Amino acid sequence: MKKIIFPGIALIAVCYAFGRFSYGLFMPEISEALQLDDAQSGAINSATYIAYCLSLLSAPLLINRIGHYYVIQMAGVSAVLGLLGIALSPNVFVLTLGVFLAGLSTGLASPALGNTVYAELAPEQQARGNSWINTGTSFGIIISGPIYWLFTEYWRLTYIFFAVLGVVVVLWNSRVLSPRKTEPCTKSLWTCMKPTRPGVALLMATLLTGISSAIYWTFARNFLTDEKGASDSEAVLFWIVMGIMGILGGCAGRIIERIGIGWSYRIGILLLSVSLGVILLPSMASSLVSAVMFGSTYIFLTSVFIVWATRLFRPNTSIGISLAFLALGAGQFIGSSVAGYTIEMFSNTTAFLAFAVLGLFGLLIRVK
User: Fold this and answer.
1) Same domain for 195 and 140
2) pLDDT per position as a tens digit, 300-345
3) How buried is 26 (Cβ within 10 angstroms: 0-12 exposed, 13-18 middle, 19+ buried)?
4) Helices 348-360, 317-345: inter-axial angle, 10-degree rounding
5) Distance (Å, rounded) from C-alpha 315 to C-alpha 214?
6) Residue 37: helix, strand or coil by DSSP?
């Protein structure tokens, strides 16, 4: 089991934490170096969402044709090329291309690794395997946070270091995984991707979670520095705490085995919504409590969605994971836009409370 989980965790860390989320962390320094305004920085960041959605749509087709082993290699190579593109970017065009390639890797990695778990692990190990691999984002955040703290001005060298780690991870995965194919979709791919009624419930759950969590990913750090007067060091500490607590999401597999997907999902949604309200309390300690709750709960919920999808879409597990994460990404894209508008029209407090209430509507979704 460890032979599959550890390289999978490393790949998720490279693709998600380094390739996708680190741009937001280093965006002020990158924008200053390349003389980007806020509109350009935001537009470049949106390239990750576009790439993420495109790769999620193409991942099931690629896995069905060539197998998850080669798609994992594609994800790793795409992440490495994207990281190098960001590191060496002399202008906006090359930077956008690098961000886009890094974003492509995320949508390829998750479905391919989900298929790997289905093919390589025994049924009783699959929920735990998927949950622990999903914590790779948290491990990557734990690494990228202190690096940002220590080497803020040397962002190009940092991205080269991330790319070198990516090469090591690609070689590691190619060495330990076997090029075995899972059972292909024998019908048309659209027929396999068409969700049943329980599948629609999964997509609604992921869409709502994506919308409600988007305000936290996009505006929590700005809220701390602008509204609460937190220093940059305190904001980075907040980021690191959120990453550390995400490791607790690895326990999702065991919790699902004990109380079921339905209760796991409801508890996760409730805690996620509460974390959006707790960050509004005046003290910095409450912000750290919120980071603990959000970090652990978000990774926990995405693990629940992976397990839920693999059970609904057997044997084509990559299709279920792709659809679930596509809905999650679409929700985050919608949520970021609406959150920015709400903050501008009203206030941070109103926006965070509104998104917390919106998240609670997820409790109305029936889990089968």
Assistant:
1) no
2) 999 899 889 888 877 677 788 888 888 998 888 888 878 888 888 8
3) buried
4) 150
5) 31
6) coil
Q: How far apart are the first and last CA of the chain?
A: 28
Q: Which residue is associated with the tokens 């001005």?
A: 153
The CATH number of whichever domain residue 151 belongs to comes to 1.20.1250.20
- pLDDT tens per residue, range 43-81: 777 778 788 888 988 888 888 888 888 999 999 999 999
Q: Point out the domain boundary residue: 140, 161, 184.
A: 184
Kindly indicate the confidence band of residue 39, based on its pLDDT and cuts at 50, 70 and 90. Answer: low
pLDDT at residue 193, rounded to an integer: 55
Overall residue count recorded for the chain in this entry: 368
Which residue among 125, 160, 184 closes a domain?
184
Number of domains in the chain: 2
C-alpha distances in Å from residue 256, one per residue of 228, 266, 282? 37, 12, 35
The residue segments making up the domain with residue 178 are 1-184
Quickly tell me which residue has 């409370």 as its tokens: 353
C-alpha span between 218 and 126 (Å, rounded): 32
> Quick one: 6 and 150 in the same domain?
yes
The answer to whether residues 162 and 92 belong to one domain is yes
Q: Tell whether 122 and 148 lie within a shared domain.
A: yes
Q: Are residues 174 and 124 in the same domain?
A: yes
Residue 101 has pLDDT above 60, yes or no: yes
Residues 153 and 199 grouped into a single domain: no
Please give the model's pTM, rounded to 2 decimal places: 0.84
The first and second tokens of residue 31, run together, are 């924008």
